[in-house]
Write the structure tokens for this entry.
Amino acid sequence: MLKVLKSGFFTSVQDRGRLAYRDSGVPISGVMDDHTVRQINRLLENNEKAAVLEVTMTGPTLLFEETTHIVLGGAKMSATLNNLPIDNHKIYRVAEGDILSYGKLEKGFRAYLAVKDGFKSETVLASTSMYLPITSKNHLEDGDVVGYDAHTTFEPKITEYKTEDLLDETVLEVHQGPEYQLLVDKQLEKIFSRDFTIAKENNRMAYQLQEAIPGHAHSMLTSATLPGTVQLTPTGKLIILMKDGQTTGGYPRILQLSDKAIAILAQKKFGDGISFKKV
Amino acid sequence: MNTFPISIRPFGLHAILIEWPNMVESAILDDILQFTEYLKTKMGQQQWEFVPAYNSLTLIKRGDTIDFDKYTIELQEIYREKKTFPKKEKFLWRLPVCYDPEFGIDLAEVADRLQIKVPELIAMHTGNTYIVYGIGFLPGFMYLGGLTAALEIPRRATPRLKVAKGSVGLAGRQTGIYPQESPGGWNIIGNCSVPIFDATKDRPCFVSVGDRIQFYAISRAEYELHKIEGEVGIYQVEKIKWDA
């Protein structure tokens, strides 16, 4: 078991998400920064479905009760294992009684902790990804425990790798969304020529952007939305849906982020800048 | 069956959006659902998810990106040969609603603003069958079409931070049920004792797009009884096979 001594700001168990229930209105959930999690799971030779902990902004303090191997990735949060600094994208062996804690957020917004063979926790609709009210809670609290299997004999093929880091990227690659054609020149010009700032309203459901573009008076019938869908509200606000985002919506879907752009955005916080680039 | 002009467009690299004429029309919805059923057997549900709503069907592929040109041609061809599609089985679900003022916190005010009496409002709300045009926004939230114009009322000026699970509301030309406690701006006229969404079930939402919903009024005592029956798992939702 992994014991949560202090939970941090928002730490949750996430896997690849729920991929069969969107027609019942269930968001897919799952890790926000898929790019990072694929890499750290691969390093541990895990199944791509292995669940990790997603740590947001302020990290938790965690006590390991069994021996295993771990890898950290994503945001840089000055993590320490038994008070000794440890790096991202590097395998560490942890033993019973070891304590992982996080310090200052240096770069990015979401850090990940992967464990050999993944974390085990409440599985609902074929996923352990925390999302209320599908699972009983949406984040871990002080004193919670998360399961994992003890591994004493694992010998990793590679123990670390230098990886392409998306934390410094600010350009989001986008495809045309279904309602892209509704955009007029003065809107297009704004979207693709200026930088946008992440608004306070940003979470696992959606990221809002501070700067508005000229609004519109189009009404449309409710239709499916996806993680990475950029919606334009009548007042000209841009809302980018993320992994816990609603499965349908009634605002024009003007752009669609690439998978990589979703991973880049997942590492952005209030006040950070981004821009859009059409592919 | 009619054949409608459809448009097929990419929606990012993992999804395809198929759109029918921009109308709220049960014939269009039926056509979409019939096509969906056929595609489910033809394309398989292991790799694909199908999200129908109003005048659209979104196909989402798990994992890989889509060879869009290939699918556009295939989908157009399949749609053109569609006479062989099997009909989708549909149900009318009769859902109990308690219009007691304790649940219907806006009932008196709504009746007042619509200049009708409360029993008339209840009779109108229960007198129609509603078509489920989509499920989304929240797990198990149904977009229902078919509300009578006499019950049209704007959403509340200030949304509530908390609306109780099961609340039955009115807003614009829509009526619906909040499947879970959430913030919301609809006018609340009652509470449905049947949970529309249950994550512990293999099929968490018993209603499908295209089904019909009819509400019927129950007393406070019946509401309590249904609640208990629901908790111990013996409550059966009344369903009638619907052949439209």
Observations:
- Residues 26-43 of chain B form the longest helix (18 residues).
- Chain B touches chain A through 43 residues (CB under 8 Å).
- The first strand of chain B starts at residue 7 and ends at 11.
- The mean pLDDT of chain B is 92.
